[in-house]
Design brief:
Keywords: Membrane, Transmembrane, Transmembrane helix. The protein is mostly helical and about 100 residues long. It is built from 3 helices and no strands. The protein is elongated, with a radius of gyration of 31 Å. The N and C termini lie far apart (about 85 Å).
Length: about 100
């Protein structure tokens, strides 16, 4: 069985090209995974910082001897309650 040299060269070229693409994809996947892991690490740091701030705020309220407002915060942060939002007159005139 005889395979022409041109066919062998084409197969070899295709094999080299596919190998290069595979190596490139593996490299890109490695970089992407590093970036995702960095993002997760930053997220954990932010969670820790927010927990520390929450604790500091609670300590301040405890030192002042007052209860921390919870009902007022719930009212302020209620996404379904948009009746209290009013646009000031000067902003309506500017629009």
């Amino acid at each position: 069985m005889f395979i022409p040299a041109a066919t062998m060269a084409a197969i070899f070229t295709l094999l080299v090209a596919l190998s290069a693409v595979t190596i490139w994809l593996v490299t890109i996947a490695g970089r992407l995974s590093e970036q995702v892991m960095t993002l997760f690490a930053c997220n954990n740091v932010m969670d820790d910082d927010l927990a520390a701030v929450e604790s500091d705020i609670q300590d301040i309220y405890d030192e002042m001897g007052i209860k921390r407002p919870t009902e007022e915060l719930r009212i302020l942060c209620d996404p379904d309650d948009d009746d209290d939002l009013e646009v000031p007159d000067f902003l309506q005139e500017a629009a």
